[in-house]
């Protein structure tokens, strides 16, 4: 008798769980990649090192407010890329606002007596990943 009741309980639980599931569909996020060549003379200087602002009209609306932005740098004409980090004695970082992205090249320890130098040519790969606000 216990086996029959246990079997009915399991069958009822499986039926209830199987019918209470809902399936959600999500669209695949679209990503757009842009390449920019930045020459050493294109950088401006501030109190912490060097910076370069790049105008990106596509970085607006939902791309800016809920999307994601990644940046990779190449100092060998695209043979390989480094994520934003510290390499070649420089700390690279970025921030972005609607319509623009600013790259920074700084001394990793912010020594005021150290002049930051950047490669003669730096290939910048910027990827914008669109997203949808689901809040």
TrEMBL record:
It comes from Rhinopithecimicrobium faecis. Keywords: Signal. This is DUF1735 domain-containing protein. It comes from the Bacteria. PROSITE patterns: PROKAR_LIPOPROTEIN. Residues 1-22 form the signal peptide.
């Amino acid at each position: 008798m216990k086996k029959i009741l246990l079997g009915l309980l399991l069958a009822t639980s499986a039926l209830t769980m199987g019918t209470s599931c809902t399936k959600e569909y999500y669209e695949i996020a679209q990503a757009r990649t842009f390449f920019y060549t930045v020459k050493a003379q294109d950088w401006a200087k501030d109190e912490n090192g060097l910076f370069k602002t790049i105008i990106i009209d596509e970085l607006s609306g939902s791309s800016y407010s809920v999307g994601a932005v990644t940046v990779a740098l190449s100092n060998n004409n695209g043979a390989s890329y480094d994520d934003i980090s510290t390499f070649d004695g420089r700390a690279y970082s970025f921030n972005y606002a609607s319509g623009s992205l600013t790259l920074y090249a700084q001394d990793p320890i912010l020594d005021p007596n150290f002049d930051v130098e950047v490669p003669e040519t730096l290939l910048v790969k910027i990827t914008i990943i669109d997203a949808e606000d689901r809040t």
